[in-house]
Amino acid sequence: MTTSVQTSTGKTSSAARADTSPTSRKQMPRFDMRSVKIVWIPTDKLCVKWVQSQRPFNPRFAQRLADNFDPDKFGVLQVTEADETGTHHVLEGQHRRASVEIAFGPNQKVPCMVVPCRDPKRAAELFNDINTTRLQQQPLDLFKVRLTAELPDHVDIARIVERNGYAIGHTSGAKGLACVQALLAVYHMDDDEGPDILAQTLTIMREAWGFEKTATRNAIVRGIGRFVTEFYDEADMDRVADKLSKLYTPNRLYGHASAYCESHRCTTEVAVRDLLVAAYNNALKTGKHLRVKRPDSEA
């Protein structure tokens, strides 16, 4: 691509902003079909020879992969050329390799892409680039993918959201919920009552502030969810919504929670919970006050 530049003589010349000519592109590395190949290699010929060129091995992660093994999700390991003993260094996929041996025993053949590499420096460079040049998944995008895959908790959350008048995503105006990490966190706050807790959390938000977009901050949703979880059988949830609507806007609540965090050295989620307890207790007889039972992590 070129741009016109005026010289000191007043004449116009062309200056290249970026050289995208065919000649320039030819200088970039290209696929070498002769040196890069996919082969089936026994797992006992695959290992991390250069530990300084890889992440530490996580046995629990390997066990989880083995417990949920699915050959369609295995993919292809990336390994170096074999050394003089016939062993390949695993560039990418050491946990998948281990999962196969955990699930099926030693010396299983797995698909591998063999990359021309024979030293730890190049192996470290390849590992770094493989793991840092991928586009990071955004929580909302990942939630929608898992929803399409019909993961049970994601499907249930979407139904609860819709029943409360909201929709998952950015595209539904004020009714759009993009705070999927908070929704998941609230849903899993209790193994038995999680769905009802999430439904009640959304009900409180809606009754207190309507479909106010600023009410869907992660910290606010999680904080209300935490309150509902801890006082599910004790609090009058209609009173919670009423007190919220009278004492706070979502922005005011978040602002007070942020200040509370600084003075009490707690998370914003805990701060929102504590402010809700204080609001609920306001004008109630002492005997009817809610009391927070703080775990050691909050002390």
**Strand-residue proportion:** 5-15%
- Secondary structure: number of strands: 9
Could you report the average pLDDT, rounded to the nearest whole number? 87
Q: What is the count of DSSP helices, taking H or I runs of 4+ residues?
A: 12
Q: What Rg is obtained from the alpha carbons, in whole angstroms?
A: 28 Å
Span of the ends, CA to CA: 62 Å
Helical proportion?
A: 40-55%
Q: Your description of this structure?
A:
This protein is α/β, with parallel strands linked by helices. The protein folds into 2 domains: 96 residues, Conserved hypothetical protein from pyrococcus furiosus pfu- 392566-001, ParB domain, CATH 3.90.1530; 160 residues, no CATH class. The protein has a 5-stranded mixed sheet with strand order 3-7-5-6-4. The chain has a two-stranded antiparallel ribbon with strand order 1-2. Strands 8-9 form a two-stranded parallel ribbon. Strand 5 and strand 6 form a beta hairpin. Helix 5 packs across helix 6. The longest helix has 16 residues. The radius of gyration is 28 Å and the shape is elongated.
